Amino acid sequence: MALALALLLLLITGCDMEEDLADRLPRSSIELTDGYCLVAGDQVVLNHHDISYYDYGAHLLYLKDHISCESLLENSASFQVYAGGEEVYEVGTHPGYSSSFPITDPFIWTHPTFYEDYILPFSSIRSLGGRAGVSADTREDPRIVAALKKYGQYREGLHCEILSCNYSDPGEVILKLKLSNRDEVNYYYLDPEKMGKGLFHYFTNGLFLRNDEESYSNHVEYMQPVPWDAWELEWMSLLKGGSSVTITLEYKNFDTVPPGSYRALIRFPGLSHVDRDQLAQRNGQIWLGNLELESVVEVE
Fold it and tell me: Residue 57: which domain range?
């Protein structure tokens, strides 16, 4: 009995040591696994041992503290995403200071980025200028979901949709959004009622209405935090796992919009400049990310 117990303890300890060793392996020793992996050329530069989790809704990869975005991006301009040992898609990089359009889709913003060094953001051209639906989103593949779930690294994050967008003369719009938490984790989100419309619109450009000829916008006077990257927990509300909330935004000085059919476009914002040790707060975690929303609106 004692011998069997000792062997069991040795087996458990050995498994833990194997996981710890995998996390400490030098970068040149990384191997392709059946989890989520990044490959640059013929070298595996990240595998599932390096991942804390992936926010699938916002497409943000949270890295463990032994690896950083800077170390990943410094020697390569493109990567191949693998899941379950299979190549899923290729992703390029695009500097944050560049005014040019990315040449690959998806792409990874390189420094300067909106995020701290433990976040690897996978972006798409569909989020630039309201280009939603231009093509299938290769970031969203069932093989990726399966590989992440296999190691408990998959999260849905927050989901947001436009419930209604009602325009009335002269230049008044009432926009209703539904924000849903599809995880078991509780998330803190930026709440326009708590922080005020001006401060909320520092983090988002707000609502636009567009057709093939014209774009019509809001004229909210935004308020910048001091310093620019400051934030307060008092600006946020807690959205419990599996729950949802309706958010209403009223625009009193919107452009005059002629009758017709339009696309309503808005980006629901989250915080970005949050230190790793500040993510976890009492009763929940701060949600990072941006969600691009689009809906068809008829103006009579």
Answer: 34-150
